[in-house]
Structures are given as structure tokens and as C-alpha cells.
Amino acid sequence: MTKSLHRDADTGTGTGTGTDAGTATDAGTATATDAGTATGTGTGTATATGTVAIALILAYSTPMSLAALNYDSQGLVAVIAQDAETGEVRMMAYADETAIERTLSTGLAHFYSRSRQKLWKKGESSGNALGVRSVWVDCDGDTLIYMVDPAGPSCHTGARTCFFRRLDDDGNLVEAGSDSAAPTLLRLERTLQERKASDGGKSYTKSLLDAGPTKIDAKVREEAAELGEALIRESNERVASEAGDVIYHLLVGLVLREVRLRDLLGELSRRFGQSGHDEKASR
Questions:
Q1: How much is the pLDDT for 169?
Q2: Which CATH class is domain 4-150?
Q3: b or e along 88-121 (b: 16 or more beta carbons within 10 Å of the residue's beta carbon)?
Q4: What DSSP assignment string belongs to the chain?
Q5: Which residues 6+ apart lie within 8 Å of 158 measured at CB?
Q6: Of the chain's two ends, which shows fewer C-beta atoms within 10 Å, N or C?
Q7: Contact assessment for residue 224 and residue 216, using Cβ atoms and an 8 Å cutoff
Q8: Do domains 4-150 and 183-275 have the same CATH topology?
Q9: What's the rounded Cα separation, in Å, for the pair 73 and 76?
């Protein structure tokens, strides 16, 4: 079967927001909001164990097939697996047309192993599957992004991500220990978790955690009030600074309650496509 890949023109609503609509013809129709989430009509959302149709969203305005992607001499394109909630890059591999078709039809990440010369499903031996919500294609058509929900570590070493080493300014390869390439909020969450083991006399975060929810509640309220004042009468720089204080103390509270940042982002993701009035009414 030839997969038809298409990205419709952006359409604006009465409020000036845009919606990118993508289609996947393998097992149903999937739509994607401008934030990159995808839901399949009649089939549910992508999970590590479910079978769904997912959108393959292109940087092109005309229909094309999988065969039209810019494969290399071995018939492969590069694939980056990125956490759909946190934005963390989990791994990089290659895929041929069959692997991409299998990913689209199952909602599970499939790749092509250059060393074993065969198709493989991520997690088929380890159990650490990657549920795929959507597949994005770059402007040259030679690189894909799988937006994924990881079911466990993604690296064959057992690390959460394959990107746990970095180059220093002199080009030397440095083992980063517990650190890894990660977006800002994920790095902040990890730093706060590390502070749990620090000396409360030297760590403001640890002192808040030791003081408990009542203290953190007071700080969140205090910082939120300061943000409100900044929104009314202060500069954008002050608004950003006060918002940073709110987010920091909010994350301290989440760390205290052992609520993951990914759970928070998942809750926000769940609300895409839902009216704010409807969401509040459903509580």
C-alpha cells in the first residue's frame, strides 16, 4: 500500500489561532494541533501497547507518498525519537520505508538496523517500547522525528536517553554522570530532586522541602501575587523574572509530592482541543 502524506494549509479560527491538519491513511484519520499532539478518530491515542493511526506531518503543502522521502543510498532516513511531553531527545536511529509504514500502522516505533540488516521494533527484547504519537518530516525529507511516549529507558546501556555524554570546549568527550541533554524544565526538575540529598543549611530548595507543604504553599501564593503585580504595572523583564519564581516554587511542590514534570505536561497535553470552559466544568 502506498501511504498518502499530506499537510493541509493552516486555517485560522475567529480568535486568530491556527490548526495544522495532517492525515494518515493506514488505519484512520488523525488530526494534529499546532502544538504537535495527534489523536486518531475512532482509534484512540498512541500508546506503547495500542494500535492506532498517527499523523505524519510534513513541511510540504502538497500530497506525497513515503516513497517520495529523500532516502539515502541504502534506502534509509535518519529518525530522532523525542519525548512528546518533556521534549527530551531519547535516541537516534534509521528507518526504511517498511519501518515507517509499520510505525504508522501500529503506533510503535520501528527502525531498520544497519548492523543486523533487518527491521526491528524498539523494545521487542527489552520491553522499553516507544509509543509514537506523531511523525514529523524535515524540510529536506531525509530526517524524521518520532514524538514518543517512552516505556522505560531508551538507550541500550540502560540510560534514559542515549545522549549522556558531551563535548567540552576543547572537543574532549566528557561523561556527564547523571546529567544528560535535556530541556530547561527537565533539568530544573532533576536539580531539585538532587537537592533532596543536600544540606538544608546550604540549599534553599532543601529547606523548603524540609519545611513541608504549608511553607511551599505560602511561597507559591507569595510569588503568584508578585507575578500578578508585575503583570499589571511592571516591565516584561520583571514579568519573566516573577514567572520564573512561580515556576520554580511550583516544581518544588511537585518534587515534594513526587509528581513528575511529565505528569504535569501530560495533563496540559490532554487539554489540547478542549474548551477551557468545558475542562473546568468537568472537574
A1: 87
A2: alpha beta
A3: bbbbebbbbbebbbbbbbbbbbbbbeeeeeeeeb
A4: -PPEEEEPPPEE-TTS-EE--EE--SSS-EEE-TT--EEETTTB---SS-----EEE-S-SS-EEGGGS---TTS-EEEEEEETTT--EEEEEEE-HHHHHHHHHHSB-EEEETTTTEEEETTTTTS--EEEEEEEE-TTSSEEEEEEEESS--STTS-SSS--EEE-TTS-EEE-TT--S--HHHHHHHHHHHHTTS-TTT-HHHHHHHH-HHHHHHHHHHHHHHHHHHHHHS-HHHHHHHHHHHHHHHHHHHHHHT--HHHHHHHHHHTTTS-HHHHHHT-
A5: none
A6: C
A7: no
A8: no
A9: 7
Domain borders along the chain are 4-150, 183-275
pLDDT digits (tens, 9 = 90+) for 80-132: 999 999 999 999 999 999 999 999 999 999 999 999 999 999 988 888 999 99
Q: Which has more pLDDT, 282 or 191? A: 191
- Quick one: average pLDDT of 144-161? 90
pLDDT for res 58 = 52
| Residue 234 pLDDT | 97
Q: In angstroms, how far is the first alpha carbon of the chain from the final one?
A: 44
Which among 43, 105, 96, 36 is positioned nearest to 67, based on CA atoms? 96
Domain 183-275 has CATH 1.10.287.1080: yes
Q: Is the pLDDT of residue 136 over 70?
A: yes
> What's the grid cell of residue 29?
484519520
Q: Does residue 20 surpass a pLDDT of 80? A: no
Strand 77-83 to 143-150 pairing: parallel
